[in-house]
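On clarity, I found the account of how folds are encoded harder to follow than it need be. Since the whole study asks how a given chain folds, the encoding of that fold should be made plain. The format is easy to grasp once an entry is in front of the reader. For illustration, here is how one protein appears when written out as sequence plus structure tokens.
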Amino acid sequence: MQFKNLSLAALAAALVLAQNDTSMMNLTALIAGNSNLTGLATLLSSYPDAAAGLANATNITLFAPNNQAVQAAQSVLGSAQGNVNDLVTALLSYHVLQGTVFAENITETPAFPSTTLNNTQYSNVTGGQVVEARLRDGNAQIISGLKQASNVTEANLAFSGGVVHVIDNILQIPGSFSSVAQNANLTALLGAVNTTNLTSTLDGASDITIFAPSNSAFQAIGSAAANLTAEQATAILTYHVINGTIAYSSSLSNASIPTLGGGNVTVTIDNGTVFINSARVVNPDILFAGGVIHIIDSVLNPMNNATGNDTQSEPATAFSGASSGTVVPFTSGVPTPTTTIVDLVTSTTQVAVSYTSVVPAGGSAAATGGVEGSSSSSAGAAMQTGAVGAAALFGGAALLANL
């Protein structure tokens, strides 16, 4: 995580003080003594096995949901399928950062610190699934799955093992690729993946970055897409994936990056706008179980690596002579999203609905209608840990053969 330079000395001093101050209250006492955390205290007492991991934790940062946030989540937990105790354990671990971070260390530059969520039923991110931490309009916010924004309402509550920040929403565990693609309205991409039976492969992928064309981007090259061979389609789609590296927005810079398909994409940052070749990133940093998705406004072409700039008023077309189709391809049979990620999902109702679509990292949104724990059928799906090869990720030449 990125820190303000002037805060490093203060942070180090605070850590030493916390380690040497044996009179400082423990986490249980801190939660019990805060009137805004009675709901969390009740939740922890209801799931003692899930709470056990926090009992002796040291050098951590806990994002503690306030009473209203816990109450909103109770109905979702009550309707969850499978092993609810496992779900609560995973949910709590996603609220804990590895290391002590104070509110003043959060800047306007997005940072992506690792949490203690390492359960591969819910995350395939090496080192622990992340949250996004940043200042927005002067307020510290924690962004989680489906771009749920949680505001820090009470900061820097020190205890013997670290620090607690009270937040006003439950952090949402990022779902599988398929559930996130649906909720992000990437239904053309999801439909193509479902058609080629690659859903479980992508849902189990680890440490990848996807530059995901929007539905309108697919529609814009409808005429060209209809004439692609299977080999051409495979080359195009593998060109949209960085394999074995999660490239969050704050780590992107002007550079040429190798793709899964073998060619390079060029990242250009012009006046704060990020371009991948000539495609504009219109919605960055959508977290999912295996990495991160950046939505782009046009489909990349490995045979045309022209770059874009901020003077572009319309999405660029990397396929010469292509014209728009009358319908969005691949969306037949793909459910319409119940929520659509535009920038930040802020509606509590939307979040509650979308949370039920989260499935284990090895599961499939199409296979389950609710949250599932390790005892569910999808929990037993084979997991791929580490980078995936081109054939495994895109099914060889079969992908989009029916374009």
